Amino acid sequence: MADWTLDDLSKKMAKLDFAMLTTRSGDGGTTARPMSNNGDVDYRGDSYFFAYADSRKVAEIEAEPRVTLSYTGAAGMLGGPPLFVAVEGDATLIRDTAAFEDHWTKDLDRYFPEGIATPGVVMLKVHARRIRYWDGGDEGELRI
Question: Dihedral sign, CA of 32, 43, 62, 52?
Fold first, then answer.
C-alpha cells in the first residue's frame, strides 16, 4: 500500500484531462459519461466541469449529489505505468457566472457558443471525499 500525499497524486494526474463522471440514475442504476476538466488539472480535491442545466446528468446530481470520477492515464503517457484514479465525492451545481471565469477556457466555446453567458450553462464542482489510486506498483487511498 502506497502512502501518497495529495501533492504526489496531483503531480501524477497533471496530464489527465478526461474523466468518466458516474451519477445515480432515477431507476437506481448508474450512468457514466466522459467529461473534460479543460486543462484545470492542478488537483487539490476539487474537479470542475461545465454542462447544460437541462441535461440528464444535472437532474441526476440534483436528486443525488454523490458521484464518482474515474481517471485513466495510458502507459508511458506519464513516464511510467498506467495510472488509475477513482474519486468518490459530492457534486455541487454552481450557477454564478462570475465563478465560471476561474475555470473557463476558450475550448469550451465549442460547446457553449456564448461563453460563460451561454443560456443554461452550469458549472459542476466535485469535491472529493475519498480517492483511490493504482499505478501498476503502488496503490492507496486518500481521504479528504
Answer: negative
